[in-house]
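seq/struct pair 1
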Amino acid sequence: MTAPTDVYKTLDLALRIGELLLSSGAGAADVSAQMDNVARACGLRGHSADVTFTELAMSHQSQPDEPALIQLRQVRQRQVDYEDLTLVDHLVRDLVAGTVGRDDAATRLNRIVSSGHARPRWSVTFGLGVMGAGVGVVLGGNWVVVLIAFVAASCIDLIQRGMTRSRWPAFYQQMAGGFFATMLAATVASLGVAVAPSRVITASIVLLLAGVSFLGAIQDALTGFPLTANARILEAIIATAGAIAGVSGGLTFARVLGIGLGTLDPGAIHLAAVPLMALGSAVAAAAYAFSSYVHYRALLPIAVVAAAGAALFRVGVQHQVGVAWASGVAAVLIGVLSHYAAARIRVPALVLVTAAIVPLLPGLSIYRGLALFGVGGGSGGLLAMFTAAATAIALSAGVILGQYVAQPVALEGRKRERKLAGPRLVGPPTVRALRRRR
């Protein structure tokens, strides 16, 4: 029989690990599985884990005639930090393998949470600027568009960081970013630079589009967590609506100032040729990963995976297979390559998958659909929203399918394949060797 103090310490460790994983963008299925792995690795049985968008819960009942011990932990802060995510992934694997005990694991977790980053904060802003420039290349922009996208992404990050310090809600931060991007496009237009304002605005606001959140929502829906999926979808829609409000406000202010931007086509995509799109995707994905504190050893594999996925996507679009199907096929390739690359460079597959999908612009269709609805686009807006939903589902389903395909091949045998509960983008699939640790 496990002592109540041991149960409390085990549940607390599992909840704290789950909190960090969920706040860093891990799917609810991965979070639940790793909380279960931590509890089992610490020798706990008869427990259950529950994951929602804002709260984690674990319970343990030692005897049928005794009340259950329940612990809760709320998740309020959400910040993409793949360095901490990677360190926690290593911690869980060591705990499952039996190389560290529960108390040592708790000490390591405290160190991870309390330690800062060796990478200076200004380098993150620079990385996001490079990501914007890479997206400009993906969209087929010239050097002017690429330069503007770099400036816009860097400045938007600075604006949002300042607003975060003042505790502004995310919706207003999105509005401020959209307003700045539009005013930057208006300034370029007033100077007589021969660039399409729609392309400038689109390249500038990619940083604001919540495509990754939408993908996480679809992943949760596919893996049996509908409540968390609905919450993430709502968060993505509100974030995108904030960007649209900012762009609309910027256009109105530009008209008041007498700056004409002509007829805009919000969210219109004009993709570059295959070589340029592969290059731009590699740069954008690696820069996004850099800004998310990914270790340097992972940047080159991420760039290669992103370039391969983007090239396949572009070829599919060229052959008119449809955006959704092209996205799905590219996502399968990204999922397979990420699985093998992640094992070699010792980072969670989620890091590679998320960064490699960013250049495929999953949030752009959401922005286009909502923007067309806002200007009375009617059927055009509805079509764009259906396209956004189909693309997001294709990307998420494709990535998960890629993991399903890759894991049994890597494990070399149906006997081990049957032990898998499903592909895991973070942490080990199941506990292999269990020890009772105090």
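seq/struct pair 2
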Amino acid sequence: MTPDQQTQLEAAAFRRLLKHLDSRKDVQNIELMNTAGFCRNCLSKWMMAEAQLLNITMDYDQAREQVYGMPYSEWKEKHQLPATPEQMAVFEALQAKKEND
């Protein structure tokens, strides 16, 4: 496999991941964080960091729009539910564990 082919495959897989996440708006970011250790916002931060490494101008709002497929404020209003006390307890326990590792 050539480096260009590798890049094309990685880009296609990432687009597929974004499409999958878009089809699962019912899955909340807190659930992703608690289960997988990353969420849509993490993907946005990673995209922004990679843009900076490549000298591409992209701020956090632009990165989130790439990941969410719309402005974050719109997505949040339409799809984000408040985290339950149980979800927050799991999240906080995982964060504490990370800090102690």
